[in-house]
Amino acid sequence: MNLPPALLLWIAAIAYLLAAWMIWHTLSREQHHTLPAAILGGVGLLAQGWYHLGPLAAGQPLNFAFFHALSLVSGTLVALWLATLFRPAMRSLGAVLLPYAAITTVILALFPDPAPVTEPHRWQLELHAAIAVLAYASLSLAAIQAVLLWLLDRILRQPRYLPLASRLPPLQAMDKLLFRIVAVGFLLLSLTLLSGILFVDDLFAQHLVHKTVLSMLAWLVFGILLLGRVFRGWRGRVAVRWTLSGMTLLLLAYFGSKLVIELILQRT
Questions:
Q1: Could you tell me which of 25, 114, 188, 256 has the fewest CB atoms within 10 Å of its CB?
Q2: Using CA atoms, how far apart are residues 46 and 79, in angstroms rounded to an integer?
Q3: 73-123 residue pLDDT tens
Q4: pTM of the entire predicted model
Q5: Running DSSP on this structure, what letter comes out for residue 30?
Q6: What is the C-alpha to C-alpha distance for residues 213 and 252, in angstroms, rounded to an integer?
Q7: CA 45 – CA 212 distance, rounded (Å)
Q8: Which of 167, 256, 186, 177 has its CA nearest to residue 227?
Q9: What is the distance between the alpha carbons of residues 210 and 206, in angstroms, rounded to a whole number?
């Protein structure tokens, strides 16, 4: 596939938006477009994935600069969504997730990051980075699910919106799915911190200390949430608040620090 890199991103964005439109159409018209939406989502993921992974075939390192990282996370989110699309509670997530993925690819097409700095090959750091992206994507998925759970709770309290609520998954199913995603994300975040301790030379270096502390705080928040679920039966609005709080810390840890260092301070 010898397409210009920017064209791959535009193909991904268009495919994601068309897939999102089909999901919205399903929710509003009681029609089912799951398979066509999945196919379009797959086309977008292939184009986006080739943009990021294609350079690896030429021996170039994976680019984790700010806008590339945004796109990598969104692509991972789409992959997770496609892998679990057979679950009815996951289908509605595409209505929010796919437009987000389209936005990140368009931003990257318009504002490409500089080429990554060539460093000695270390598979340990690449493994650490891959687990970190998976952890961030999983917990981002949990945050989107928490927002949808909050919206469904609000909709159920408004009689005029009950027809729309009938086309969404049951509240209990969405609540159960939220904690399953949080549990997977918490495990991956734990592995991220562990691999950072094992493989990163100085986890509390100048450019890593904020990321490390905020990531540990996020890990603590998600851990308390899971314990609250097991021992106190937390659900609903309490679960939503804790999930979004943990995700806010993780957002500041990763993209907040990258925003300051790379875009404001202009450091690599």
A1: 114
A2: 10
A3: 999 999 999 988 777 667 778 888 999 999 999 999 998 877 665 555 566
A4: 0.84
A5: S
A6: 10
A7: 30
A8: 186
A9: 8
